[in-house]
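Here is my example:
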Amino acid sequence: MRVLLVEDDNEMSANVKRALEEDGHTVDVAGDGDTGETLARDGAFDVIIMDRMLPRKDGVSVVESLRGAGVSTPILMMSALGQEEHRVDGLNAGSNDYVAKGVSARELLARVRSLWHGRDKTGPVTRLSVGDLEMDLLARTVHRGGRKIDLQPREFRLLEYLMRHAGQVVTRTMLLEKVWDYHFDPQTNVIDVHISRLRGKIDKDFAAPLLHTVRGAGYRLEA
């Protein structure tokens, strides 16, 4: 599952992101309402976790804007404001669920899974494909030409990002930020190593390569 977390508290954001990733999900993070709304409009997310009190634009306003724009992605609003009137405001704005901060990781994950399973079936896709390469986001499996390809968790996240941006040049900076959550270049060859391993798994023994290096720019996945 791909989750968008909109939260400005760095410690809270890190804890929730870690819990979600340990549960096998891919997480994008936004630290303010404007950025969260932009990502929610443009990204194919399965669930959105939205803080209520955010800089630049509050969570209730963001939810109202998203629903007004036709974005139907399930939204879990999370806030330090847990009184009844606050919950009602959040739900009336278009949130699917509302939880007070301080909730256990176990309950939060259960609520996220519940939103995912109860989603609109016309919502976010559960399968990605590029040529004869197929990824099942629910079963966490990858096949090419009918042959199963075993990937490590980081390789799966890397391939998912490339497949969601198929045909586009994906830069090193984009991969560092979205797959490794580095907002700086640590000056390591971690991307080169993982790209090489991934290429060996999805392209080796197949007639046509899918993962291409664009010199001086980055990488592109395309049939």
